[in-house]
Amino acid sequence: MTWTSSATLAGGIPYYSFPEITIGPITLQTFGIFVAIGILTGVYVAARRNERFGIPREETEKVGFILVGAALVGARILWVLTHREEISSPLDVIAVWDGGLQFTGGFVTAILLAPLVTRSWPRGRRWELLDGAVLGLAIGQAIGRLGCIAVGEHLGGPTDFFLGINYRGGVVVEGPLEVGVTYHSAALYEALWLVPVILVLFWLDRRGARPGVMSGVFIISYGVLRFLTDIVRINDERLFGLTGAQYMSLVLIPFGSWVLWQALRAPAPADTDVASTTPADAPAGSDDADPESPEDDISESVTAEGDSSQDGSSDHEGADRESTA
To answer: Which of 267, 294, 315 is the last residue of a domain?
Structure first.
């Protein structure tokens, strides 16, 4: 469908799609490149952070790639199910290099599989590890959205919004578009609002926020912002007026609120450490040390023997003086 709008070249961000990058004889698919960079960066960030909580980097990387692989399969399956009209051959089912991943399917798949592949990780560190996972997810998602922008995916209708994309040409996944018209780009909006969300997560991490706070903040903010962003999308199938991602958001918001509530009501890590310290753990010389320690008994015994020896010497000298007199 070709849109007409009063939007002109003066509005929006100039946009040319760039689904491919050609380097000599090699042609690279930009969607796949950005998704791969997002995955590698997100897993790396999560692995580095998990090292602080006793999980070797190699273990996080292994689990991360397993979950990402499963999430990609789930995301593609859901996209195929909701875009059946775009499937004309068996190759179209797996052609992820042309775009077509439904975040909802990937997210649900990863959540269901995560408890199984992380069962050997320390349960007492589950909130800290979840914080690292959402930090890596946020960064990877922001980078991956650049791939959606490159191929012209997740578009909305014409707009005069200054952050809309002013189409100048190129092949797009969702089109056709009219040259010179400005359109909403949900992928661009998400990539932009993920930046301050990521900065807040890093700030919370540096401030030593309680375990789970980062996770709760991200899940709530993503749910709210993703719900609002999907309002502008026009090419997704809807059920009762909402997209699949919006239904996911309606689940994420209360779930994130529960995670945040659990994190804030839990004892602070410092309080927990103090409560677990027993007198036997107290350093020597502290108020909690046992005053009747064996070392004190030995010291008192040596002192008493010394006093007794001195008293005996004094009595003996007195007797000698009396004998001489």
So the answer is: 267
3-state DSSP assignment of residue 165? strand
Rounded CA gap, 126 and 113, in Å? Answer: 15
**Within-domain flag for 4:** no
pLDDT tens, position by position, 157-178: 999 999 999 999 998 988 789 9
Cα–Cα distance, 307 to 103 (Å, whole number): 83
- Cα gap 144→83, rounded to integer Å: 20
One-letter amino acid identity for 15?
Y
pTM: 0.72
- Tell whether 246 and 294 lie within a shared domain: no
Task: List the structure tokens of 49.
Answer: 């952070």
230 and 203 in a common domain: yes
Percent pLDDT > 70 in the chain is 74
Range of the domain at 65: 13-267
Residue 194: CB atoms within 10 Å: 21
CA-wise closest residue to 163 among 7, 5, 300, 2: 7
Same domain, 142 and 98: yes
Claim to verify: residue 223 and residue 290 sit in the same structural domain: no
